[in-house]
Amino acid sequence: MKRTTRRRLGAGGLLASLALVTTGCLQDPNGSGSGTEGLNGFVDGGTADGDGTVTMLGAFGGDEQKNFEASLKQFEADSGIDIQYTGDQDFTTTIKTKVTTGDAPDIALFPQPGGLAELAADGYVQPIDTFLDYDALNASLVPGFLDAARLNGRVYGAPMRMAVKSLVWYPKPAYNDLGYSTSPKSIQELTDIADKIKASGTAPWCMGWESDQATGWVGTDWVEELVLRMYGPDVYDQWVSHEIPFNDPKIVKAFDEFRTLMFGDGTTLGGVKGILNTGFADAMTPAFDNPPKCLLHRQGNFATTFYPPDVQANIDSKTGLFVYPPFEGGYQGQPILGGGDIAALSTATTTTPSR
Length: 355
Prior knowledge:
The protein is an alpha/beta fold.
């Protein structure tokens, strides 16, 4: 049965909101600009009608949400559109409930492409080429980015922010004073550095997995990093697309390598129990103690938003970073693990799908 629902905006206003999310914000990783210049070439102008509101649902909150909402202010002022963003760490469950009960947001910001593909297959998401200039959008992005939201030849969403995750952060003054390398050439060389740090009485690695309903994603990122470095992007793609089983011997070996690298006595601050009870946003805080309680933190470029205020104010002098290096004897190259959120327009903005 097809049921008509109330339009919150005229088509131009709603699509302008989506274009803002998928272009301007993507080009502004610091979340400080309006991003309105990113609209050119993607949609025709439009004005709000109805109550002038666009609702958005996403998974990020805290400082990330504050920065995102700040980046929308100028667009809201210029367009007269009120964008109401709701952050929900249980996004995966919430979005399914909302779309199936007719309470879908206008725009959903999916943290995982698999969840988007599932709802698109059920008819709850509109393909972006029905309302955006696909070629113009594709030309503005790194090649292949839109493929993350491709299903049966159609693309159902576009990245509104992307993160580089393959970074190792360290407290610059303390780390440099100790004389450790800031450019290890392999995971094995980095492990030698970690062993020296541990021998000095300090845990080399800072780590935290607690993230409410999403607890554990930091650990899966680690395993993904190792799959990429041990076996390369082709095996990684086969794994995530279920062309090889989740427990393929290569994947099991990557899990085993992670355990060997991180869970020896004294290697990770707090050990196994400690990381499960440490919020991912708090993982590196002990690195800024005097003396530091840990020195290395593998995390995405968004990690700095969680550092203490005095560190954020002096980020270049207080922190350093290097790329998580290749695995000696593994894939010949320097793969980079990325992450982000994909913006998609709900079909409930006009009608609910036939069921």
